[in-house]
Design brief:
Distance between the termini: 68 Å
Radius of gyration: 32 Å
Structural class: mainly alpha
Largest sheet: none
Helix content: over 70%
Number of strands: 0
Oligomer: single chain
Number of helices: 36
Low-confidence stretches: 362-366, 614-629
Shape: globular
Strand content: under 5%
């Protein structure tokens, strides 16, 4: 039988809850202890104390106390709810859901427990369970629009589009007065409902809904884009043409609008003359528009291409646009265009126009005329489809001679040295480029990257430190971790891998793995935030993006490098150093033993401290002890590199790679290498089959 509290102690219990909510943990513990002095087996108080202790970082003690609370009062929904919150805090969502469901059985009317359960269900992609929870929440409080929208989202995520639309329609029918035209939440709900209708393929109904309910919608661009799409799908050529023209007038640089206009007008993709006429019309209408001049180069051939490309290149070189080559290199898949473009640039140089271009030079402008032309040719000969490094160096030197203070020219020179295979020279030139503009974050980043590729890890960190917060505890590296700077961690890890410093390499790759875990977990807050703010379309897009998060090339690259590191540790367990020369022996063997002994001592010390803490859970801790979880107990990655099961550790990186990137040949090769070492033949055969199909 659970202990009953007096009115004074009930008031004190409410104080405990309030202290927890206000994050006044010491006061909360003190108030809880006052209650427990008279009622040592009061389950709810024990549970709240456990929750506060968990917030103080005492996770193990919190779980132990929560179990005691349950033993004291198994039928308390507070105890079960707290037990679920503790499991949620340690990311054990399955156990948390079980605890929430038990709490809900004891207190079916609790909105807070129902809400917490629903959030975990959608986080775990249990859409059936989420649907049940949202339906119950709507039944309990049908006056809140948020609950109606959430139920529609639950149906949508579960693939029931018609039901989702029906829920929104039912809510609209319950409204006695129409919402204000400036109501943002209603505006978003209307566009969300419209997207549901369109997703079902009923474009006529979607168009009718858009022209009635969306007439005064706040998201005017989305309305115009949807209307143009629906009209085109319905074959209403004239109206669709007008709609796309209106969109181009709003933004003449967006390629999809031109594609939509050409499709709406029924122009055959092989009718290059008619397509060119459309682009010429807008090039004349908007003299500063780039897309109308650049896009025709994608489909024009022969003399038409030469003429159009000549005009475009003259215009860009006269202006000195640094991205000219980057904007045209996609055309190099055609041999004719690949040969024509540099010839036109050379013609531009030979004609002398480059010396007398009419574009004035202003402060901050990139180099124009001849120097821009030489810069284009340097990039052309440095590009992998047209590579001639001798010519590339010749032209970039000419460009630098004309404009010795150009950051872009020095950057390209460093890139040429990189392709020569001289990483040291490339790093030196990139550092020279950085010194030309020390306030430019981009060139600072490039300099650091090239230093890492030359295995200058400390210098690279110092370079990055020029743009990180000086007050960050732990220096630039800690700030880069906080900012989730994945590219730096990847390059740094790869550099350590080349040097045979496997501990530090694994440290960086594990940090990237954890960053992706954080991105996965960060969506949790948005399940309630997006509904509260009414941003449903963005929320649905986020959910779909999160479902394919590990397909990102940043993850694939880091995972493959981590797997490579673990394979090297597996293949040469006696010859690898934790953070030394991977192929060394003799003297390094003693160093390895020393490092392993040090790691064992640190582990034993940590165990002793944990045991002492467990034996004296109520002992006052010094200020700053709560930050212990921020302290890195393995800064050199010694524990990671001294693993006795490297192939099992590699599976942590490999499993998501094979699940989300099955067509990635490098991933299948890595899978083959791992499974063959684990003596696992069936997956190995699948990897071979996948490699054969995707290569």
């Amino acid at each position: 039988m659970p202990q009953q509290l007096s009115s004074k102690e009930q008031s004190l219990f409410r104080t405990v809850v309030r202290n927890y909510e206000d994050k006044q943990y010491k006061k909360g513990i003190k108030a809880a202890d006052q209650i427990l002095k008279k009622n040592p087996k009061h389950g709810d108080t024990l549970a709240m104390k456990a929750l506060i202790m968990n917030s103080q970082g005492k996770t193990e003690e919190a779980f132990a106390l929560a179990k005691v609370a349950l033993q004291c009062d198994m039928k308390s929904h507070v105890c079960w709810h707290v037990y679920g919150l503790l499991y949620r805090a340690v990311k054990n969502f399955e156990e948390a859901i079980k605890a929430y469901k038990f709490a809900l059985r004891l207190e079916p009317e609790s909105q807070q427990i129902q809400r917490d359960l629903a959030l975990l269900q959608v986080q775990m992609r249990d859409y059936q369970g989420y649907l049940v929870s949202r339906r119950a929440m709507l039944t309990a409080r049908s006056g809140f629009r948020q609950n109606w929208t959430a139920l529609a989202v639950a149906h949508h995520l579960n693939g029931e589009l018609a039901e989702a639309e029906g829920v929104l329609t039912t809510y609209e029918e319950t409204l006695k007065n129409p919402p204000s035209k400036t109501d943002f939440e209603n505006s978003e709900a209307v566009m969300y409902k419209n997207s549901l209708i369109a997703e079902q393929g009923d474009y006529q109904k979607a168009l009718d809904h858009l022209e009635s309910a969306g007439k005064h919608n706040l998201d005017r661009l989305a309305v115009l884009e949807c209307r143009a799409t629906y009209l085109s799908k319905l074959g209403r050529t004239e109206d669709a043409t007008k709609a796309y023209r209106a969109l181009i007038d709003r933004n003449s640089e967006y390629k999809n609008y031109y594609d939509g206009l050409i499709e709406a007008m029924g122009i055959n993709p092989t009718d290059h003359k008619a397509m060119k006429a459309i682009y010429d019309e807008y090039a004349e209408k908007y003299p500063r528009c780039d897309a109308a001049r650049r896009l025709p180069l994608d489909f024009l051939e022969g003399e038409d291409f030469r003429e159009c490309a000549d005009k475009y290149i003259h215009r860009m070189l006269d202006k000195g646009v640094p991205s000219t080559f980057a904007n045209l290199k996609h055309l190099y898949s055609s041999d004719f265009k690949k040969e024509t473009l540099p010839a036109l640039v050379q013609k531009y140089i030979d004609s002398g126009k480059s010396e007398t271009n009419e574009e004035p030079k202003r402060n901050g402008d990139t180099s124009k005329g001849a120097s821009a032309a030489y810069y284009f040719l340097a990039q052309h000969y440095n590009y992998y489809l047209s590579r001639n490094l001798t010519k590339a160096m010749e032209y970039v030197e000419k460009a630098i001679e004309l404009e010795p203070n150009s950051v872009d020219f020095h950057l390209t020179k460093a890139r040429i040295w990189k392709y020569y295979g001289n990483s040291q020279k490339a790093s030196e030139i990139m550092e020279q480029a950085r010194e030309l503009d020390t306030r430019d974050r981009h060139i600072n980043t490039k300099a650091a990257k090239y230093q890492l590729r030359n295995d200058e890890n400390e210098a690279a960190l110092k370079t990055m430190g020029l743009f990180t917060r000086a007050e960050t505890v732990g220096g630039p590296l800690a700030d880069l971790h906080d900012m989730q700077c994945v590219w730096f961690l990847t390059e740094d890890g790869q550099s350590y891998l080349r040097q045979g410093k496997f501990g530090l390499a694994l440290k960086r790759f594990t940090a990237i793995f954890n960053i992706f875990d954080v991105w996965q977990e960060d969506q949790f807050d948005f399940h309630s935030f997006s509904l509260r703010k009414g941003q449903i379309r963005a929320y649905i897009e986020m959910m779909r993006w999160e479902d394919h998060l590990r397909e990102h090339p940043f993850y694939a690259r880091a995972a493959l490098l981590a797997i490579e590191t673990y394979i090297k540790i597996h293949d040469k367990p006696l010859n690898n150093g934790t953070n030394g020369n991977a192929d060394a022996n003799g003297e390094d063997a003693a160093e390895r033993k020393k490092a392993a002994k040090k790691a064992r001592k640190e582990a034993q010390k940590a165990e002793r401290e944990a045991l002492a803490k467990k034996n004296e859970p109520n002992k006052a801790s010094r200020e700053g002890d709560n930050d212990s979880k921020k302290k890195d107990d393995d800064p050199e990655g010694a524990k990671l590199a001294s693993t006795t099961e490297p192939m099992n550790d590699a599976m942590k990186f490999l499993a998501p790679l094979l699940q989300f990137s099955p067509k990635n040949v490098a991933a299948q090769v890595a899978g083959f290498k791992v499974f063959i070492r684990r003596r696992n033949k069936h997956p190995t055969l699948y990897n071979v089959y996948s490699i054969a199909n995707n290569s």
